[in-house]
TrEMBL record:
<dbReference type="Pfam" id="PF12643">
    <property type="entry name" value="MazG-like"/>
</dbReference>
<protein>
    <submittedName>
        <fullName>NTP pyrophosphatase (Non-canonical NTP hydrolase)</fullName>
    </submittedName>
</protein>
<keyword id="KW-0378">Hydrolase</keyword>
<dbReference type="GO" id="GO:0009143">
    <property type="term" value="P:nucleoside triphosphate catabolic process"/>
</dbReference>
<dbReference type="GO" id="GO:0047429">
    <property type="term" value="F:nucleoside triphosphate diphosphatase activity"/>
</dbReference>
<dbReference type="InterPro" id="IPR025984">
    <property type="entry name" value="DCTPP"/>
</dbReference>
<dbReference type="InterPro" id="IPR052555">
    <property type="entry name" value="dCTP_Pyrophosphatase"/>
</dbReference>
Length: 107
């Protein structure tokens, strides 16, 4: 796993341990929390046009950044609990996608 993600994962472990929250961090609970946070992220885009979604004001971008952080943090915790390296999983998935959806040859 990339060093920054490893440090962030360790910081999440330390944060939860200091608050005795580990008891609540089962894979099921973390997956549910991840889904809730992803829905909160989506809520910012609900009813926007494609153009509006690309031209967000700074304050809304900051709020979306907070939701993206929540999604990332729960995803890292879930991966940590299941012993999955998210960087390696993403690389594997990108390779699988390249096979499934090959780029067209240059014209």
């Amino acid at each position: 796993m990339a060093t920054e993600l490893q440090a962030l994962t360790q910081a999440l472990r330390d944060f939860a341990q200091a608050r005795d929250w580990e008891q609540f961090h089962s894979p099921k609970n973390l997956a549910a929390a991840l889904s809730v946070e992803a829905a909160e992220l989506l809520e910012h885009f609900q009813w926007l046009t494609e153009a509006q979604s690309r031209a967000l004001p700074a304050d809304q971008r900051a709020e979306i950044g907070t939701e993206i952080a929540d999604v990332l943090l729960y995803l890292l915790q879930l991966a940590d609990k299941l012993g999955i390296d998210p960087v390696e999983a993403a690389k594997h998935k990108m390779l699988a996608n390249a096979v499934k959806y090959p780029a067209p040859p240059p014209a």
